[in-house]
Amino acid sequence: MQFDGKVALITGAANGIGRATALAFAARGAKVMVVDRDAAGAERTAGTIQQQAGQARFHVSDVTKSADVQAYVKAALDAFGSIDCFFNNAGIEGKVAPVAEYDEAVFDQVIGINVKGVFLGLRHVLPVMLKQKSGAVVNTASVAGLVATPGMSAYVASKHAVIGLTKAAAGEVARSGVRVNAVCPGPIDTRMIHSLEGQLNPADPASVGARYQAALPIGRYGTAEEVANVVLFLCSDLAGNVTGAQYVVDGGRTATGGSVTAMPKS
Predict the structure, then answer these.
(1) Which is catalytic among the residues 155, 212, 221, 247?
(2) 28: β partners
(3) What is the number of domains present in the chain?
(4) Is 76 a domain residue?
(5) What is the arithmetic mean of pLDDT over 198-207?
(6) Model confidence over 60-80: pLDDT tens digits?
(7) Is residue 58, in this structure, part of any structural domain at all?
(8) Which residues fall within 8 angstroms of residue 46, CB to CB, at 6 or more apart?
(9) Which CATH number do you get for residue 101?
(10) Does 155 participate in catalysis according to the annotation?
(11) Which residues contact 89 (CB under 8 A, 6 or more apart)?
């Protein structure tokens, strides 16, 4: 899976899965536009790529604002001339609480970033790819887009929506040389899962992590690099007949019907 001469645009690339994917694209020859609202983190990711003799720029954006999304698309085009791969990845987890108690402002924030942010990315990147008559998009969904996680209603709703957007967009552009897929990570060893551990048991988050990992068939959290590998596959010519799909990277969680609950037992 080489991407020499290709341009990869990645949102949420300051940390976690986004950062790992940016580094993986660069290691395989792609020019990378790093996008995040975390300016210092985005600069670090781009700087790491440059230190490794790769080509990268960074752009600070709020993915919920159309003008900011248009700006990161323009920045990628101005810097590199095209957008061949788009990892539409930025997202947040929100809070852990039952639906009957979920904070409305937090719900709006999660939906804004995880759904509207993905929509705006598609809205402004797809016209570029349609004009090129080529391109591959991967949206970050989650196993929470396939099965429920009690206590995470906003996140679950948002990730189900991402899968719906993926299917709708894929059907619209399939005959134009553009593919749109989704990746569905399970629990991955990044800031997000550790934030959830801390919400559930501030005094002993490690015990939550041990319980989560014991419930996974593979017996451990996945890594950001393992998700990045699937994203690169979906953006490569090897996946030329794959569109409108969701690829699960979850250590067997959904295959075995397991649901790692985010709600403490009463």
Answers:
(1) 155
(2) none
(3) 1
(4) yes
(5) 89
(6) 999 999 999 999 999 999 999
(7) yes
(8) 32, 34, 56, 57, 58
(9) 3.40.50.720
(10) yes
(11) 10, 11, 12, 13, 17, 18, 21, 138, 139, 140
